[in-house]
Design a protein that fits this description.
By secondary structure, the chain is α+β, with helices and mostly antiparallel strands. The protein is 30% helix and 26% strand. Helix 2 runs antiparallel to helix 3, helix 12 packs parallel to helix 13 and helix 14 packs parallel to helix 15.
């Protein structure tokens, strides 16, 4: 691909490979490069003459396999202590290889480097050039980009502040800086949560339309709200009560239990509101019994079919019970409903949204991922005996765990909408989990008793990297079953030796066998390695058939002697000594299918933290390149959980289940065979689990490389089409992910636009997706 047009004022910018770059070889086009590590970059020439100028930069960049990338320019600035200024560039869209950015060239830089990839991989770089456009033109072009997202009037207001002669020069300069800042946010897709709310949540003007929908439902569900109160600030109490009165759905009942409050304003406020609305019922407890007894007292007032829980200083979204009632009306078998949530500060500013996945059992064992807003059938809550004393601080967690024991996963429904606002103030667990340390102990005991009631032998301990969360360790089968580790290989004896030696030297589980499947090795070093490692524990199988990863593994599994099979890439090295025990402990659970582990790049970044799926690129590795120790999105990088799929680079499963679903699909010889396999396991009724407590280094694509030849690209495109045709529903809405999170990146950023039914129809017409925005052209 070449630039779309020539221009006399275009300045070509030479790009010279610097660090970590392999130029194209005879097997690849001359313009193809490979980044060997995260910091691979090019020296950029030609910008010296443009110091202090406003320019429009154009780069032709194509990343192989449509992988997400994060290109940037790095300016080393002249100073007594030189510093690096990094200028992020838009990631290349799949249908638009040209990326553009308007910026002011720093006047005091010493050197410039361009980084094409956020991680190792292959890409094509077909040139870069700059156009000098001047400040006025730059402001106009930046505002035009901003207008595609913010609309004309907001963009015009930004311009007015920048040119208003009534403002002093400093104020106009700050206004221009705001334009630049907003332009960068738009171009890089860095939208704020407040902007997301404004763009995608239904507006007050849509209340009439939403309310009119009530008459179309098959029933009008009724909800009782359990509301325990104790000495809360008056402003917070009134805000909570007002949020109930503001509900557009009318069929609710507010059941309040004052838990012996000593503050005089409590009774006065509650009496005032109960007189104001007949749907509000209040009981005044003589003695303080803490939240469990107060909640149960409020529960005794409930007469409606459903029960919701609201804390005395939190708030409900005005549409909360509209969407709850809609879900009940359209899902007659549902018994437990939960929604997304966010936090509000003392000034009622919304922040820190938690966009949840659908019901995720392993995640629920790690922490209460249901939390707010929770709505249950009142009959179920009564059958369970309400909330239990002794679990204060985790009483809702304990209730949810007990409820799940009587429900199928189909009876638990997630509403991907922020319907609950959790108050964050000093002393609240919304602000700090350390505010109520007893809650973590109570939650851990709730999980322990839940597992005991299910007849599951396990221990529950604080999660190593996040002690307020839990780590469940299942007891291993007795006697210890044989695990067959299948490793496909071709030459690269150095990699295979490191893999096999790490298994032998570091694994504490000893009842295993290794089946090495040799697919066409020719190097003498490989054969010497085979002679060295073959023993009673290691077998080498020769298979000279054309490379087909699925077929090679299937043939090996058929002759494996183990009750459990572990597919393992030859370019891996074991880190965790008890990795087999960890994977086996999950794989042995009767309702668990494939189990994956935490894989790291040799450079230290996270390579595999579970797989989530999307309609564009099919596969995304959650939290890829996250640094060690970082918890990720609400702890999801460091705790066990279910995913729709895990990578076949290190995957364990019962052999009987492998056979039950037909093994890997041999019509997918290279790409997506592991993902398709996991989805078939899931379809058969099993959960696929990822655990961070089995850790392995993965030298990705080290043996065969990332082939980007025309034939390989055609194969990948064909296999991508197969996945999109075979699994359209899960690719559109992965239950282990959120439709409010982006499928264009792997870092759990907010989706733009949201992919929730009912959000798009209220989206202002001037709002377009980041991908559409990325294709806007700024050519002269």
């Amino acid at each position: 691909m070449m630039f779309s047009s020539a221009s006399s004022d275009a300045i070509t910018l030479p790009l010279v490979p610097a660090n970590g770059i392999d130029a194209g070889t005879s097997n690849h086009p001359a313009d193809a490069c490979a980044a060997r590590r995260d910091s691979s970059d090019f020296d950029v020439g030609g910008l010296d003459a443009l110091r202090g100028q406003w320019v429009r930069l154009e780069v032709l960049l194509e990343v192989d396999r449509d992988e997400w990338s994060s290109p940037n320019l790095q300016f080393e600035l002249q100073a007594d202590d030189p510093e690096i200024h990094t200028l992020g560039l838009p990631s290349p869209a799949s249908d638009q290889r040209r990326i553009e950015l308007i910026f002011n060239v720093p006047p005091n830089f010493q050197s410039v480097r361009f980084c094409a990839n956020a991680r190792p991989g292959r890409f094509r770089l077909n040139g870069a050039r700059a156009f000098v456009i001047g400040r006025a033109r730059a402001i106009f072009e930046m505002l035009r980009a901003v207008a595609t997202v913010d609309g004309f009037f907001r963009s015009a207001a930004l311009l007015r502040d920048a040119v208003d002669p009534g403002r002093n020069a400093a104020a106009r300069h700050r206004a221009r800086q705001r334009i630049v800042q907003r332009y960068m946010q738009v171009r890089l897709g860095q939208y704020t949560y407040a902007e997301w709310i404004d763009a995608f949540e239904p507006k007050p003007s849509h209340r009439a339309d939403l309310a009119s929908a009530h008459s179309q439902w098959r029933c009008q569900p009724t909800v009782s709200i359990v509301f325990p109160v104790f000495n809360v600030e008056e402003r917070f109490l009134r805000a909570a009560l007002n949020s109930v009165l503001a509900q557009i759905y009318p069929h609710w009942q507010l059941c309040i239990a004052d838990d012996g409050s000593t503050e005089p304003h409590i009774r006065k406020v509650l009496q005032d509101y109960s007189k104001r609305d007949s749907r509000i019922r209040v009981v005044y407890r003589e003695h303080n019994g803490h939240i469990v007894e107060a909640s149960n007292s409020a529960l005794e007032l409930a007469t409606n079919d459903w029960v919701a829980f609201l804390d005395h200083d939190d708030r409900l979204h005005p549409h909360a019970f509209h969407f709850v009632a809609e879900a009940i009306a359209t899902h007659p078998d549902v018994s437990l409903i939960y929604s997304d949530e966010d936090k509000i500060d003392a000034q009622d500013r919304r922040q820190d949204p938690y966009f949840k996945c659908d019901y995720n059992y392993e995640l629920l064992l790690a922490y209460n991922m249901v939390c707010h807003l929770t709505v249950l059938r009142r009959s179920l809550v009564n059958d369970l005996g309400g909330l239990r004393r002794g679990f204060e601080g985790a009483q809702d967690y304990d209730l949810v765990l007990r409820a799940t024991e009587h429900l199928s996963s189909d009876q638990i429904l997630h509403l991907p909408r922020v319907l609950y606002h959790w108050r964050a103030h000093p002393g609240s667990t919304a602000l700090s989990s350390q505010a109520k340390p007893y809650a973590a102990f109570a939650g851990r005991r709730a999980v322990e008793e839940h597992l005991q009631r299910r007849g599951i032998r396990a221990t529950v301990a604080p999660a190593p990297d996040l002690p307020e969360m839990n780590r469940v360790r299942y007891a291993l089968p007795d006697p210890a079953p044989t695990v067959s580790i299948v490793i496909c290989t071709r030459d690269r004896a150095d990699l295979l030796a490191a893999c096999i030696d790490s298994i032998a030297e570091r694994s504490t589980y000893r009842n295993y066998e290794v089946l090495v499947v040799d697919n066409g090795s020719t190097e003498a070093a490989t054969f010497r390695l085979f002679e060295r490692v073959q023993s009673g524990r290691v077998r080498v199988m020769r298979d000279a058939s054309p490379f087909n990863f699925s077929a090679l593994n299937n043939r090996a599994v058929r002759v494996a002697s183990g009750d459990f099979v572990c597919l393992l890439n030859n370019d891996t090295e074991i880190i965790t000594a008890d990795w087999i025990e960890e994977l086996l402990s999950f794989a042995a659970q009767q309702d668990v299918g494939a189990v994956g582990c935490r894989l790291w790049y040799p450079s230290g970044g996270l390579q595999h933290g579970g797989v989530f799926l999307g309609p564009l690129h099919v596969v995304h590795h959650a939290h890829r390149h996250l640094r060690r120790g970082h918890p990720g999105y609400f702890g999801r990088a460091i705790i066990h959980q279910s995913f729709s799929a895990v990578t076949g680079a290190a995957l364990m499963i019962r052999k009987s289940l492998y056979d039950e679903v037909g093994g890997l699909d041999e019509n997918l010889p290279v790409t997506f065979n592991d993902i398709d396999f996991c989805l078939r396991v899931r379809k058969a009724g099993y959960r696929n689990v990822w655990t961070p407590y089995a850790e392995i280094i993965h030298h990705e694509c080290a043996t065969r490389g990332a082939d980007s030849s025309p034939g390989a690209r055609a194969r990948v495109e064909a296999e991508t089409r197969v996945m999109k045709q075979r699994w359209p529903a899960v690719l559109q809405n992965d239950p282990a992910y959120s439709p409010n999170l982006s499928v264009e990146s792997e870092d759990f950023r907010i989706a733009w636009p949201a992919r929730v039914d009912g959000y798009q129809h209220v989206t202002p017409t001037h709002l377009i997706s980041r991908r559409e925005e990325a294709s806007v052209s700024y050519s002269e």
